[in-house]
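Reviewer comment 2.1 asked that we show a complete input and output for one of the modelled complexes. We chose the 2-O-methyl-1,6-di-O-phosphono-D-mannitol case, as it is the one discussed in the main text.
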Amino acid sequence: MDLKELNRIANAMVAKGKGILAADESSGTIKKRFDAIDVENTESNRRDYREFMFRTPAMRDYISGVILFDETIRQKAADGTPLVEIIAASGAVPGIKVDTGAKPLALCDGETVTEGLDGLRERFQDYHELGARFAKWRATYDPTKTSYNCINANAQALARYAALAQENGIVPIVEPEVLMDYDNTVETCEAVTEWVLKETFQQLYYANVALEGMILKPNMIVSGKKCAKQAGIDEVAERTVKVLKRCVPGAVPGIAFLSGGQSDEEATAHLNAMNAGRTLPWHLTFSYGRALQAAPQKAWGGKSENVAKAQAAFAHRARMNGLAATGQWKPELEKQAA
Ligand code: 5MM
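Response of the prediction step:
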């Protein structure tokens, strides 16, 4: 393992004012996104959609890395250029999602464990040849029922994945996501997130994972979407930073949040509130899927004549989040663009 190189890549992924585009929707998830804008889920539509994002000039200024799905890392643009080359030419690091999804955890009603470890060493070797320099594995937790068995099984899987990634010259993004889809309070989200992060770092230690060569991708501490009482922006920022300080060693180069179903502007405002006026041991940035892509998807609607408009929508969200990653975003900037 070349720790210096892993650390160099990890630092590039959390470079100041930049963040990660999570474009790793599996075929089923992208179908849901396309259904919402009435676009047929074909390979060429998926290619055209991702190609216009990767060719957006703002990639160069605000996007440090792109997480891809297996199909996309092998795909070529309409002119025959591999999509990975377009990403690398923008200065962003190409990455790959390697988990095969959350599956029911036996005898644990409704809880899941993320799978994908079988053959992973060989898959990493293949992905490295295809140009991937980082990877992602996501575990999900329902905060209304999380058991130690679920937290421990997922932490062990995350740690085994991260060790295999580093062995093969790939920076692991470790993504434990406490879901925000339920009716739990912000206090419950905080308690479960702290438990999950502590167990995850414990297992990373046992697995010999070098913290300097990884990125953490956590949820923010928010109220469940169906909870009557919603925490405000400052409360979310305070609670999230407090838990991260308790759980994440300073050796980790950066933390890149998922958006988890927050609105575009909420995800930006929360990130900004965490960065504004604080000196922290790690870079705090974004690794958003929905909060970067909802606006361009809507503007595109599957029509080539809308590509320029959709690229502008993507560039705007990338810029807003780039500013939030340095605590310089202001709500007025959203209005100016509208
Ligand atoms: C882009 O969406 C990824 C999920 O894809 P699958 O469900 O098809 O596997 C997801 O892992 C994503 O990378 C993270 O959850 C962050 O995305 P959000 O939308 O939460 O910011």
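Residues 29 and 158 are 22 Å apart (CA to CA). We note this here for comparison with the apo prediction described in Section 3.2.
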